[in-house]
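pipeline: protein-struct stage 2 | run 1193 | (diamondback moth) hypothetical protein
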Amino acid sequence: MKTTKFENDKISLFESIKPLFANKPLLLVLNKMDVVKPEDLPEEKRILLEQLEEKCRTGNVVNADSNSELVNVPVMRMSTVTEEGVQEVKIEACERLLGHRVTEKMRTKKVNLPLY
């Protein structure tokens, strides 16, 4: 089975809107795991997915400070039909969002110390 134009368009769309995710928490979630698992994909599609997963692991997906927790983008799997992975995705998303908000708050917080 060859990779369809639609699948290539999804990856192209993601690549084109990537700048919008700069310095923001991001997850890559593979949905519909009840239909097909990544390891069961045809080779061409599996290679595209592996390339994207490698970018996520090496910090080449979003522009973020190299010391930031945002550099690495977790790749998660889920199925809303079987509910496999749904809770894990929710927890990860909430933890990353909360962590990002705390970090941003601390970074922008002004210290009001008395001047002597």
